Amino acid sequence: MTLTPVPRVAVVVVAAGSGTRLRGGAPKAFVGLDARSILHRSLLGVFAGPSAQVVVVVPEGYEGDALTDARDAAGAAADLVTVVTGGATRQESVAAGISALWADVDVVLVHDAARALTPPEVFERVVAAVDAGADAVIPTLPVVDTIKRVDDAGRVVAGVDRSELAAAQTPQGFRRAVLEAALAEAAADHTDDAAVVAAAGHTVITVAGDAAAFKITTAPDLERARAIVQAAPEASPAPAPAPAPAHRAPRVGIGTDVHGFGGEGTLWLAGLEWPGEQALSGHSDGDAVAHAIVDALLAAAGLGDIGTHFGTDRPEFAGVHAEAFLAHTLRLLREAGWAVGNVSVQVQANRPRFAARRVEAERVLSAALGGAAVSVSATTTDGLGFTGRSEGVAAFATALVVPA
Ligand SMILES: Nc1ccn([C@@H]2O[C@H](COP(=O)(O)OP(=O)(O)OP(=O)(O)O)[C@@H](O)[C@H]2O)c(=O)n1
Ligand SMILES: C[C@](O)(CO)[C@H](O)COP(=O)(O)O
């Protein structure tokens, strides 16, 4: 079996904006462009570029739609897609996307879904410039209009020398460590990522942008994009070829885990922190729900169990939370040619009470598994057994994996 090499480039596609200037009746990325959404079209361009992990950042409630679009656009590369929920500002959405990067990624491109017609060559130019040693690279176009500085009353105050100006586009590319550190220390909200790293003291260089990479911001922009797509559908980037027919059947797996109360700090369970609740003890954070899921997935894929890959002899997993466990498990599955179908997990515990946070837990666990469906249920045991005596928590998971 030929395995897709693990990419060292990631593209974070920010698509969580509301599109107030477009007024398209839906968040901008989910407005129709041709038969599909603006996001779908953007992702066709992304997948036609260099091989990369693709993290799609979307508004809360649109994760499922985004996953459908992304899987369709990705074709055979569907296992490279992760969908996460964005934030109130573009910068927060970028930070949410960065938090989902795989460990091997060292070059990060941040791309606006709204720049739906960006040619793959722009992605290639940006990656090449980062590979050549730049900390930060942005595509730009020269400013063609005469530019004036005006006051609040609309009076011209001064002319501006346009030869000093450039219009910034996306994808903007960075060494991962540079962008992560700059976002972590950012004191202000910026409209692009280059400004975030420049504020942290880094040099940003430019490569040639492309007129086709214009941002769909207003209704006339959308009309222009629709006209371009309609006039030249054959110019559409081709999606990756469909995967070869699978010769392996889907497989199910089962996993259980138990942790006793008595750990230090706050409780972590099902990928969530539970302030005020007693912590579970364990080598990591004692998250029995996440560990049961890991066991179920590894069993389904025939890859052993949690002890095979996350034993107590692995110091890097001491104290880490569900996302790290699940992301690493996803990698192991992917490298073995499997994708996650779905996961169902039941937690048995008197506390914490899951009802109010069940959906939140499902969302966090699903995001950590690249958007795969995760169902969480919770029950008590009528006072029987160790969970009934509130001595600890048990979790039982089943998982379906399918050939990637
Ligand atoms: N909280 C936000 C805001 C913006 N974006 C993304 O950032 C890109 C550029 O932003 P912009 O064009 O300003 O999009 P919107 O914020 O959606 O538009 P508007 O400012 O008109 O509301 C878009 O792809 C948008 O989806 C995002 O992911 N999260
Ligand atoms: C990132 C960007 O697309 C670069 O031109 C831009 O800054 C997005 O934000 P804006 O507020 O729509 O300019």
UniProtKB/TrEMBL annotation:
Residues bound to 4-CDP-2-C-methyl-D-erythritol 2-phosphate: D257, V258, H259, H283, S284, D305, I306, G307, T379, T380, T381, D382, F386, R389
Does Cell membrane count among this protein's keywords? no
Q: Name one GO biological process term.
A: terpenoid biosynthetic process
Q: Which domain of life is it from?
A: Bacteria
Cofactor(s) for this UniProt protein: a divalent metal cation
User: Positions of the region 2-C-methyl-D-erythritol 2,4-cyclodiphosphate synthase?
Assistant: 251-404
Record has Transferase as a keyword: yes
Write the record's keywords in alphabetical order, separated by commas: Isoprene biosynthesis, Lyase, Metal-binding, Multifunctional enzyme, Nucleotidyltransferase, Transferase
Q: Per its record, what are the GO molecular function terms?
A: 2-C-methyl-D-erythritol 2,4-cyclodiphosphate synthase activity; 2-C-methyl-D-erythritol 4-phosphate cytidylyltransferase activity; metal ion binding
Q: Which residues bind a divalent metal cation?
A: D257, H259, H291
What PROSITE patterns does the entry give?
Answer: ISPD, ISPF
- Hey, where's the site called Positions MEP for the nucleophilic attack on this chain? R162, K215
Annotated 2-C-methyl-D-erythritol 2,4-cyclodiphosphate synthase domain residues: 251-401
Where does the record place the site Transition state stabilizer? R21, K28, H283, T380
What residue intervals traverse the membrane? Answer: none
Similarity-based family: Belongs to the IspD/TarI cytidylyltransferase family. IspD subfamily.
What is the purpose of this protein? Bifunctional enzyme that catalyzes the formation of 4-diphosphocytidyl-2-C-methyl-D-erythritol from CTP and 2-C-methyl-D-erythritol 4-phosphate (MEP) (IspD), and catalyzes the conversion of 4-diphosphocytidyl-2-C-methyl-D-erythritol 2-phosphate (CDP-ME2P) to 2-C-methyl-D-erythritol 2,4-cyclodiphosphate (ME-CPP) with a corresponding release of cytidine 5-monophosphate (CMP) (IspF).
Which NCBIfam families does its entry note?
Answer: ispD, ispF
Q: What is this protein called?
A: Bifunctional enzyme IspD/IspF
